[in-house]
Each structure stands twice: as structure tokens, then as C-alpha cells.
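Sanity check record (used in CI):
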Amino acid sequence: MSETTTEEIIKIVEDFHQNMGRLSPDEATALFKDDGYIQMMMKEPYSGRDEIHQMFSAWSSNYTDVITVPRTVTGQDNRVAVEWLDTSDHNGKHYEIPVCAMFEFDGNKIAAWRLYYDYAAERGQDAGLKPPVE
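Expected output for SnoaL-like domain-containing protein:
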């Protein structure tokens, strides 16, 4: 098997974000290695495909109208950094949260996905404040 190029993993990340609102939990989980993980800031990681699948199942059950179009994407070797505005509806509220993340790949599978988001914007929107300016 040939090594996956940086351009190929960038394409995987771009496609993942373009389709986030349409991917089933099975499709999203299939992008990860068996021992991959998702680490959101200030939370315990979702480790392994079972926990990752549970997380995507919860997201798809609780969030609607999800849009995560990448604004900035850059990669080097087996890593891709991406920035986007996470737009979704949850519990009758509309959210727009600035997010950035680092993906690490092993071949063409995600080994790690670390997410960093604007916690103040999320909490402010819970309180009924305006979403961030684009």
C-alpha cells in the first residue's frame, strides 16, 4: 500500500466538513482508526470506534442543520489544521461557534481529532447573546 499524501488527507478533512451534517454516525466513525480518538477541549477524549460512534450518534440525534464549511485548511506530513464556523440548531436555539482543530492521520484514517472552540461564544449564545461576527 502506498503512503497517503498530505494533499489526500487534506481532501479527506475537507470532505468530512462539507458533509458533516449529512454523514451517518457509521460513515463518520469509519473515517477513524480502531484506536483513534476525539479530544474536545476541557473534556475527556472519546477513545476507540465504539465511543466515537456514540459521540456521533449523540450529535446526529441532538443537533440539526449542521454546517461546518472550512474557512482555512493547511497540512503538513500527516497533520491537517482546519478552521470553521460551526453552525447548528440545538434545543430550539441556533448556534454559531468559531472552531479550529488538528487532525492527525495514520495512512488515510484519522488517528486523532483535537477540537478547540470559542467557549465564551457558546455560553453567550446559551444566555441569549448575539452570535460572533463573521
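The radius of gyration is 15 Å. If this sentence no longer matches the regenerated C-alpha cells, the check is flagged for review.
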